Input
Amino acid sequence: MKVLVTGVGGQLGSDCLKELAARRHVALGTDVKERRAILQDLSVLGEPSFVRLDVTDYDDVKKTAEDFRPDAVVHCAAWTSVDDAEAEENFDKVDQINRLGTMYVAEAVKKVDAKMVYISTDYVFDGSGRRPWNPDGERYAPLNVYGRSKLDGEYAVSAVLDKFFIVRTAWLFGLNGNNFVKTMIGVGKRQDVVRVVNDQVGSPTYTRDLARLLVDMIESEKFGRYHATNEGDYVSRYDFCREIYRQIGLKTRVVPVTSAEYGGDRAVRPLNSRLDKKKITESGFVPLPPWQDALGRFLRETRLR
Output
């Protein structure tokens, strides 16, 4: 299978390339940045396996797809800085990347008759209540600019394509980039006490595990909307941080605070990020391992433990 992956400079995109290489698929990685700036950890790739691509340039997207003729496209490229998205001067950029760029990718995918995976987010929901969000038939009410732009991307994909997977995930952590785990370890090593919100509840997701599931999906025809995070009990950011410190032996004291008490964020975060993942097993896919196990593997692989 020939697979094009956008946004390989990020955590998930880079792990998707590694998973594809491990399964001996022919993969082409793309990113708006130059290869030398992002792919130091991707020794699995040969020189022809990366091209620079700006997803907001339709001609560039169309040409890349027509030249490579993929069987599937995994669209990981996105504006992901949630707080920066709230700045008025960034509104157009966020829309161009997350909505318009996604529409361009979907249109190019249709022209070459390929499948598409679009990575979305728990932020498409308003975070109310305590019930896990179902992947189908829910009311969408994003609380911030980033969430709205990712929902617009979902609409673009479903309006253009029939052969698509929309995969909503949350709380990503991976080797190739910044994330909550790395940030909390850095803060915990510098400070004796850290304050972490205890009213935002969801599930962490190791990008290496998610990449495995995404490749499973494109090897199938089981299209639709899915929710995918690591398994295990739902957890607050506070409890997640405590488990990080426990696994690496940090004695830093973690103080629970509400989102309102924490302050400082431009963007409003959903409090309830519980995602219902039953559709994964109902469709015959293997669910992701428990998040505690995933965290341990990540810490060993990054030598942060």
